[in-house]
Amino acid sequence: MAFYRSAEPVRTYYVYNAALSFLFALSFTLSAVYYVRDAGLNPLQMVLVGTVLELSCFLFEIPTGIVADLYSRRLSLVIGFVLIGAGFLLQALVPAFLAILAAQVLWGIGFTFTSGADQAWITDEIGTERAAGVFVRAQQFELGGTLVGTVAAGVLGLISLPLPMILSGAGMVLLGLVLHVVMREQNFHRTPREERETFRQMADTFRSGLHAARRRPVVRTLVIISLVAGLSSEAFDRLWSVKLLTFTFPTVFGTSDPAVWFTIFALAGTLLSLGTSLTLTRFVPGLLKSSHPTGVLATLALLQVVGVTTFALVGNLWFALAALWLRTVADTVRMPIESAWLNRHVESRSRATVISIVSQANAIGQVAGGPPLGALGRTSLRAALLTSGLILAPITALYLRLGTRRTADTESVPS
Q: Cα dihedral angle (22, 23, 26, 30), rounded to 10 degrees?
């Protein structure tokens, strides 16, 4: 077949990100409503669902990152999406706490196979210099996919809350199979069979990733930032929806169904994020591709703190939404800038592993911070959300401190 593994890498990466974001939006837009209404989860159980997910990520992030570095980025992605799809299908078909926990294990392991592998793949194929612009552009494709997926979730959710998750799970499996067929991998060199079936080779790759994290201030600081962000994010990501469900929603289109309103909320947040990303790309492209973007990252981190703490304190639905969207926009703009920055400071042979180490630090933070804040949330939802925001405060200082350094680590690392 002429098209077999012949797709152009950048176009493949854009379509892949759009499709992935569509499927995630299809599953996640109404998942919180599903957890509360259909499965009957309380605030602590909501957080424990996320904790089990992050614990799975913590335990499997490094081994799966090593697979992507030693065997194949493409193979790692295919395995990951099949497992993610299976997890989505399980939690949609069995609305019970234990089944939902098992689903988190499945799709959490699947996510670790994809984490870092896609960024490492495209960086290998096109080089580190082109990757910065591609990451920013891909973010916009992601937001476009999210918009379509959010609308689809809202429409399907009016029929049945689990339906969008079922279709998302099936779509994830299909995405993995399509990537197996079309995704080319020309600049990745697989470790010879006689070498890759040894633990020593895996240990060497892991040590290379740890060495980069210790030796390079940018990588080391991003690991710490990822840990702090994880301490805060698990509780907030699970409890913001619980707070919104305490408000009385106005009637729109003849209904006040939370499925409709959560769709509207998600659409508004995505449109704001997309508009901000496009505006920054058009008017300050050099800032987004800066070799040392500490100033803009510190500003975005501060905006996240303001958004989370304001959301925790206000008692008005519209003020709460404004704060939530501020946090969402700041985080959306931050991600591609930070990803490109990290990739410039890591060698190709350990790139997926280093990215996995950063992700693992976030998982450690979520596992450590989620349950205590979830338990606090059973007593005071406001206190749990406020604490989540205050934990984020040191990140701004960490970015600014890194910006004062002038070391060899500011040099780009060749791929």
A: -120
